From TrEMBL:
It comes from Hyphococcus lacteus. PANTHER family: PHOSPHORIBOSYLGLYCINAMIDE FORMYLTRANSFERASE (PTHR43369). Its EC number is 2.1.2.2. Keywords: Purine biosynthesis, Transferase. This is Phosphoribosylglycinamide formyltransferase.
Length: 217
């Protein structure tokens, strides 16, 4: 069976891109990363893609007057590479409602919080300031609003005494690298799918375990 052609859109270092590249290298992975697009010419993730032999495109948002023109250039690159699924991985440009609706059900994102809490920027700092005891990350379908849309999966980690932004970000990032490829696989294998405003799962997909912080025993 032909593997789904995926594009990963990045803006920075690309550690989540790397986790997707590594997952897609497994022989039974149901998708292949056909293209990596960065809106920043110097994004570290571009080198990771090239190293893995994946085509890269830089679509610099600064070269376009409008978001629509910027997205038209992205769409052109996606079409040329025959992409049928998009993963945003640290892509820090807001997409228009039109783009989100054109790619509805085929456009997903990862965000370093348990959405719908703490969308937007400076997430780790804001979580520490708010004193939350459990943090985490979310993979979700992209809808018109920033960091919103039907949730596909979440991973939780404790916030520990003495945590600063860096320590908490590192703890969450470790889970991001597990969660993103796992959610992508579920979607591509049709074990999770979008139904209206929600995501539904096969009976084989069952959660176990719990995280209580501070512990009760
Ligand atoms: C990741 O933590 C990702 O969750 C976050 O940017 C980082 C990118 O790191 N995304 C967002 O905040 C989206 N709103 P990476 O380039 O190493 O994957």
């Amino acid at each position: 069976m032909a593997r789904t052609k995926i594009a990963v859109l990045i803006s920075g270092r690309g550690s989540n891109l790397q986790s997707l590249i590594d997952a897609a290298a497994e022989p039974d992975f149901p998708g292949e990363i056909a293209l990596v697009i960065s809106n920043r010419p110097k994004a570290g993730g571009l080198e990771r893609a090239s190293k893995a032999g994946i085509s890269v495109e830089v679509v610099d948002h600064k070269s376009f007057e409008t978001r629509e023109d910027f997205e038209a250039a992205i769409n052109h690159a996606l079409k040329t590479a025959k992409v049928d699924f998009i993963c945003l991985a640290g892509f820090m440009r807001v997409l228009t409602a039109g783009f989100a609706s054109d790619w509805r059900g085929r456009l997903i994102n990862i965000h370093p919080s348990l959405l719908p809490s703490f969308e937007g920027l400076h997430v780790h700092e804001r979580m520490i300031q708010a004193g939350v005891k459990i943090a985490g990350c979310t993979v979700h379908f992209v809808s018109a609003d920033v960091d919103s849309g039907p949730i596909i999966g979440q991973a939780a980690v404790p916030v520990l005494p003495g945590d600063n932004e860096e320590k908490l970000a590192a703890r969450i990032l470790e889970q991001e690298h597990k969660l993103y490829p796992a959610c992508l696989r579920l979607l591509l294998e049709n074990k999770a799918r979008l139904l209206g405003a929600n995501v539904i799962y096969d009976d084989t997909v069952v959660a176990t375990g719990e995280l209580i912080n501070p512990p009760t025993n």
